[in-house]
C-alpha cells in the first residue's frame, strides 16, 4: 500500500489517538497499583501517574507516525496497553486481598 494512501493515514491517526490512550491507560493503571504496593497513598500515586501520563501520551502520539509498519504500531500500543492494564488489575486484586 502506498504510504500516502488515505486508509493508511487514517490508521495512523487512529493509532495515535486510540492506541496512545489505551497504552497510557494501562501505564496509569499499573503504575498506580505499583505505587500503592510500594506504600504510597492512592491519591498521591494516582496524581503522579496522571502527570506522567500527559507526557507519555504525547510521546506515544508522535511515535505512532514514525515510519514503522502500522501493525507494529497498533500491536505495541494496544498490546502494551492491554498487558499493563491486565497486570495492574491483577496486582490490585492481590493487594485488595491483603
Overview of this protein structure:
- The longest helix has 32 residues, at 6-37.
- It is built from 3 helices and no strands.
- The protein has 98 residues and is an all-alpha fold.
- It starts with 5 loop residues before the first helix and ends with a helix.
- It has one domain (28-96).
Characteristic key phrases:
elongated, 3 helices, mainly alpha, single chain, 83% helix, 98 residues
Radius of gyration: 16 Å
Tally of separate domains: 1
Helix content: over 70%
The share of residues in extended strands comes to: under 5%
Distance from N terminus to C terminus (CA atoms, Å) equals: 53 Å
Give the biggest sheet. none
Shape: elongated
Structure summary, number of beta strands = 0
- Oligomer designation: single chain
Low-confidence region ranges: none
Structural class: mainly alpha
Count of DSSP H/I helices = 3
Q: Averaging pLDDT over every residue, what do you get? A: 90
Q: What is the H-and-E element order? A: HHH
Amino acid at each position: 500500500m502506498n504510504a500516502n494512501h488515505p486508509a493508511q493515514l487514517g490508521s495512523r491517526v487512529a493509532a495515535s489517538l486510540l492506541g496512545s490512550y489505551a497504552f497510557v491507560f494501562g501505564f496509569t493503571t499499573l503504575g498506580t497499583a505499583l505505587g500503592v504496593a510500594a506504600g504510597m497513598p492512592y491519591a498521591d500515586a494516582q496524581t503522579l501517574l496522571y502527570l506522567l501520563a500527559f507526557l507519555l501520551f504525547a510521546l506515544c502520539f508522535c511515535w505512532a507516525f514514525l515510519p514503522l509498519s502500522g501493525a507494529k504500531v497498533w500491536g505495541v500500543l494496544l498490546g502494551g496497553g492491554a498487558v499493563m492494564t491486565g497486570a495492574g488489575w491483577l496486582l490490585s486484586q492481590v493487594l485488595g486481598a491483603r
